[in-house]
Amino acid sequence: MVKKDKSEYIIQAVSHALDLLEQFHDDIDELGVTELSKRLKLHKNNVFRLLATLESRGYIEQNRATENYRLGLKALELGQTFIKQMGLLRQARPILDRIVEECNETAYVAIFKENHIVYLDVVETNLTVRVVSRVGSRLPAYCTASGKAHLAFMSDEELESTLAAQNLVQHTPTTLASKDKLKAELEQVRTNGYAVDNEELDPGVRCIAAPIRDYTRRIVGAVSISGPNMRLDDNRLENELIPMILRAGEDLSTRLGFPR
Questions:
Q1: What are the pLDDT digits (tens) for 89-118?
Q2: Residue 15 CB: number of other CB atoms within 10 A?
Q3: What's the rounded Cα separation, in Å, for the pair 246 and 100?
Q4: How does 64-91 read in b/e, with b if 16+ C-beta sit within 10 Å?
Q5: pLDDT at 10
Q6: Which of 20, 42, 81, 185 has the fewest CB atoms inside 10 Å of its own CB, making it the most exposed?
Q7: What are 143-180's pLDDT values in tens digits?
Q8: pLDDT of 8 higher than 80
Q9: Is residue 87 predicted with pLDDT exceeding 80?
């Protein structure tokens, strides 16, 4: 059986839609139907149909004042997703390596998704006693340091909506299963700039995390250090690990375009 070239599977309408989106680049923020028709070498009726489809999905929007078209918010969301999932990972790895080299504890980078924390990458300590790798795991945000680093900087409306969808389970004696207690802690996280998981998900495991921001100034992830409580005592957290995680969060944010 002869294997077909991938070009034989191309759907022309999809190709035209992508060609249309690619016309909005550099300083070109708005275009009319006539101009798009000329650029794409397509009949105006075809351009109208493409625009209507893309507009219905939020990738294109019309400026009612000029009747021209521009990129919609969905295009921005797609770009931000790429930055979070690809740019974040690429920029995070050397910082995770540096953390582990300096303190020999496990370091993670995570994102917030659907009220959970998802760990995207890890660099592990070489010590025998360590936290089991959680890459790919979905953990509740309210009882993890990375989760609290995200929750703390949400607007009041976002936080209320997120907590309304969460069942605050008491995983350990130190889990903040009360919304009032959790909100009080999140206020402290905002003030300090970092979050602590004090054995709130797993007994004997502590974690600290700092938020990661990108060029839009929004939080796109969190960087964290995790280990057994016998090594992550209060004295070590305060004098070594908290300054380290704050520096890591700032450095990674700068790499993603956040102005310092």
A1: 888 999 999 999 999 999 999 999 878 898
A2: 10
A3: 15
A4: eeeeebebbeebeeeebeebbeebbeeb
A5: 85
A6: 81
A7: 999 999 999 999 889 999 888 888 899 999 999 989 99
A8: no
A9: no
Enumerate long-range contacts of 226-230, CB under 8 Å, 24 or more apart.
226/105, 226/106, 226/107, 226/108, 226/131, 226/145, 226/197, 227/105, 227/106, 227/125, 227/130, 227/131, 228/129, 228/130, 228/131, 228/204, 229/199, 229/204, 229/205, 230/129, 230/204
Alpha carbon of 72 to those of 49, 58, 119, 215: distances in Å?
16, 5, 30, 19
Token duo for residue 206: 């502590």
Alpha-carbon distances, residue 240 vs 108, 148, 227, 248 (angstroms):
17, 21, 14, 12
Task: Look up tokens 């070498």; give the residue.
Answer: 41
- Give pLDDT tens digits for 14-28: 999 999 999 997 678
**How confident is the model over 216-245, as a mean pLDDT?**
93
Entry pTM: 0.67
Quote the tokens at residue 188: 């402290």
Sign, Cα dihedral of 236, 242, 244, 248: positive
User: 170-189 burial by CB neighbour count: b if 16+ within 10 A, else e?
Assistant: ebeeebbbeeeebbebbeeb
The token duo for 138 is 């979905």
Amino acid symbol at 62: Q
Cα 205 to Cα 189: distance, rounded to the nearest angstrom: 19
